[in-house]
Protein backbone atom coordinates (compact mmCIF):
# COMPACT_ATOMS: atom_id res chain seq x y z
CA UNK A 1 0.00 0.00 0.00
CA UNK A 2 1.12 3.58 -0.62
CA UNK A 3 3.06 5.07 2.36
CA UNK A 4 1.24 8.40 1.97
CA UNK A 5 -2.16 6.71 2.25
CA UNK A 6 -1.01 4.78 5.32
CA UNK A 7 0.35 7.96 6.89
CA UNK A 8 -2.90 9.85 6.27
CA UNK A 9 -4.96 6.95 7.67
CA UNK A 10 -2.78 6.86 10.81
CA UNK A 11 -3.18 10.62 11.22
CA UNK A 12 -6.98 10.40 10.84
CA UNK A 13 -7.16 7.49 13.28
CA UNK A 14 -5.11 9.42 15.85
CA UNK A 15 -7.29 12.50 15.34
CA UNK A 16 -10.42 10.39 15.93
CA UNK A 17 -8.80 9.11 19.13
CA UNK A 18 -8.50 12.78 20.15
CA UNK A 19 -4.70 12.77 20.13
CA UNK A 20 -3.17 16.24 19.88
CA UNK A 21 -3.01 17.32 16.22
CA UNK A 22 0.71 18.12 16.31
CA UNK A 23 1.54 14.75 17.87
CA UNK A 24 -0.71 12.96 15.34
CA UNK A 25 0.89 14.80 12.42
CA UNK A 26 4.43 14.11 13.60
CA UNK A 27 3.77 10.46 14.42
CA UNK A 28 2.00 9.80 11.11
CA UNK A 29 4.85 11.45 9.19
CA UNK A 30 7.36 9.15 10.92
CA UNK A 31 5.18 6.11 10.19
CA UNK A 32 4.88 7.16 6.53
CA UNK A 33 8.63 7.56 6.19
CA UNK A 34 9.36 4.20 7.80
CA UNK A 35 6.77 2.44 5.60
CA UNK A 36 8.42 4.07 2.57
CA UNK A 37 11.69 2.38 3.54
CA UNK A 38 13.48 5.45 4.86
CA UNK A 39 15.58 5.30 8.02
CA UNK A 40 14.43 7.25 11.07
CA UNK A 41 17.11 9.91 10.50
CA UNK A 42 16.10 10.30 6.84
CA UNK A 43 12.44 10.52 7.82
CA UNK A 44 13.04 13.23 10.41
CA UNK A 45 15.28 15.17 7.99
CA UNK A 46 12.64 14.95 5.23
CA UNK A 47 9.92 16.03 7.65
CA UNK A 48 11.95 19.00 8.88
CA UNK A 49 12.94 20.09 5.37
CA UNK A 50 9.29 19.93 4.33
CA UNK A 51 8.36 22.45 6.99
CA UNK A 52 8.57 25.99 5.72
CA UNK A 53 10.27 28.99 7.33
CA UNK A 54 9.29 29.26 10.97
CA UNK A 55 7.19 26.09 10.97
CA UNK A 56 9.98 24.16 12.70
CA UNK A 57 9.96 26.62 15.58
CA UNK A 58 6.16 26.67 15.65
CA UNK A 59 6.10 22.87 15.77
CA UNK A 60 8.62 22.90 18.62
CA UNK A 61 6.45 25.31 20.62
CA UNK A 62 3.33 23.24 19.90
CA UNK A 63 5.09 20.11 21.16
CA UNK A 64 6.27 22.04 24.21
CA UNK A 65 2.70 23.12 24.91
CA UNK A 66 1.54 19.53 24.61
CA UNK A 67 4.22 18.48 27.09
CA UNK A 68 3.16 21.28 29.46
CA UNK A 69 -0.47 20.13 29.37
CA UNK A 70 0.59 16.54 30.04
CA UNK A 71 2.60 17.63 33.09
CA UNK A 72 -0.22 19.77 34.45
CA UNK A 73 -2.78 16.97 34.01
CA UNK A 74 -0.48 14.49 35.77
CA UNK A 75 -0.98 16.27 39.10
CA UNK A 76 2.72 16.68 39.92
CA UNK A 77 2.37 20.41 40.45
CA UNK A 78 -0.66 19.93 42.71
CA UNK A 79 1.37 17.54 44.88
CA UNK A 80 4.12 20.15 45.12
CA UNK A 81 1.66 22.84 46.17
CA UNK A 82 0.03 20.55 48.75
CA UNK A 83 3.40 19.72 50.31
CA UNK A 84 4.20 23.43 50.65
CA UNK A 85 0.77 24.09 52.21
CA UNK A 86 1.31 21.26 54.74
CA UNK A 87 4.62 22.84 55.66
CA UNK A 88 2.93 26.22 56.16
CA UNK A 89 0.32 24.73 58.52
CA UNK A 90 3.08 23.23 60.66
CA UNK A 91 4.94 26.53 61.00
CA UNK A 92 2.87 29.44 62.24
CA UNK A 93 5.73 31.66 63.38
CA UNK A 94 6.49 34.86 61.50
CA UNK A 95 10.15 33.91 60.93
CA UNK A 96 9.23 30.55 59.42
CA UNK A 97 6.62 32.18 57.20
CA UNK A 98 9.11 34.80 56.01
CA UNK A 99 11.72 32.13 55.33
CA UNK A 100 9.22 30.12 53.30
CA UNK A 101 8.25 33.25 51.32
CA UNK A 102 11.86 33.81 50.36
CA UNK A 103 12.31 30.13 49.54
CA UNK A 104 9.31 30.22 47.18
CA UNK A 105 10.50 33.45 45.52
CA UNK A 106 14.07 32.20 45.08
CA UNK A 107 12.77 28.90 43.69
CA UNK A 108 10.60 30.75 41.17
CA UNK A 109 13.54 32.96 40.22
CA UNK A 110 15.82 29.97 39.64
CA UNK A 111 13.14 28.17 37.62
CA UNK A 112 12.61 31.25 35.45
CA UNK A 113 16.35 31.55 34.82
CA UNK A 114 16.68 27.84 34.06
CA UNK A 115 13.70 27.92 31.70
CA UNK A 116 15.62 30.14 29.30
CA UNK A 117 18.96 28.40 29.29
CA UNK A 118 19.36 25.16 31.23
CA UNK A 119 16.05 23.55 30.24
CA UNK A 120 14.84 25.58 27.24
CA UNK A 121 11.09 25.51 27.90
CA UNK A 122 10.77 29.29 27.62
CA UNK A 123 7.66 30.50 29.47
CA UNK A 124 5.73 27.21 29.25
CA UNK A 125 6.47 26.47 32.91
CA UNK A 126 4.32 29.39 34.11
CA UNK A 127 0.86 27.93 33.35
CA UNK A 128 2.05 24.60 34.75
CA UNK A 129 3.54 25.85 38.00
CA UNK A 130 1.76 29.05 39.02
CA UNK A 131 -1.96 28.05 39.18
CA UNK A 132 -1.41 25.31 41.80
CA UNK A 133 0.76 27.71 43.82
CA UNK A 134 -1.90 30.45 44.03
CA UNK A 135 -3.26 28.95 47.25
CA UNK A 136 0.30 28.88 48.62
CA UNK A 137 0.69 32.56 47.75
CA UNK A 138 -2.57 33.32 49.58
CA UNK A 139 -1.52 31.39 52.72
CA UNK A 140 1.86 33.14 52.76
CA UNK A 141 0.21 36.52 52.01
CA UNK A 142 2.61 36.83 49.09
CA UNK A 143 1.83 39.68 46.70
CA UNK A 144 1.17 38.36 43.19
CA UNK A 145 2.75 41.48 41.70
CA UNK A 146 5.98 40.57 43.49
CA UNK A 147 5.77 37.06 42.00
CA UNK A 148 5.22 38.57 38.54
CA UNK A 149 8.27 40.82 39.00
CA UNK A 150 10.42 37.89 40.14
CA UNK A 151 9.34 35.81 37.13
CA UNK A 152 9.98 38.70 34.74
CA UNK A 153 13.41 39.33 36.23
CA UNK A 154 14.28 35.65 35.97
CA UNK A 155 13.14 35.44 32.36
CA UNK A 156 14.91 38.58 31.18
CA UNK A 157 18.08 38.88 33.26
CA UNK A 158 20.84 37.95 34.13
CA UNK A 159 21.36 34.64 32.34
CA UNK A 160 19.25 35.56 29.32
CA UNK A 161 21.06 38.87 28.97
CA UNK A 162 24.45 37.19 29.22
CA UNK A 163 23.56 34.50 26.71
CA UNK A 164 21.98 36.83 24.17
CA UNK A 165 25.13 36.76 22.05
CA UNK A 166 25.25 32.99 22.07
CA UNK A 167 21.57 32.66 21.16
CA UNK A 168 21.92 35.24 18.38
CA UNK A 169 24.98 33.42 17.03
CA UNK A 170 23.10 30.12 16.93
CA UNK A 171 20.16 31.77 15.16
CA UNK A 172 22.34 33.52 12.60
CA UNK A 173 24.46 30.45 11.88
CA UNK A 174 21.42 28.21 11.52
CA UNK A 175 19.45 30.53 9.26
CA UNK A 176 22.08 32.35 7.23
CA UNK A 177 25.17 30.12 7.06
CA UNK A 178 23.63 27.98 4.29
CA UNK A 179 22.61 31.00 2.23
CA UNK A 180 26.01 32.71 2.26
CA UNK A 181 28.14 29.60 1.71
TrEMBL record:
The organism's place on the tree of life at top rank: Bacteria
InterPro entries: AA_Transporter-Related, Na_H_antiport_N
Pfam families the UniProt entry points to: Na_H_antiport_2
Keyword Transmembrane helix attributed: yes
Keywords: Membrane, Transmembrane, Transmembrane helix
Domain Putative Na+/H+ antiporter N-terminal span(s) in chain numbering: 2-88
Membrane spanning stretches: 52-72, 93-113, 119-138
Keyword Kinase: no
Protein name: Putative integral membrane protein
Originating organism: Vibrio cholerae
Taxonomic lineage from the root: Bacteria, Pseudomonadati, Pseudomonadota, Gammaproteobacteria, Vibrionales
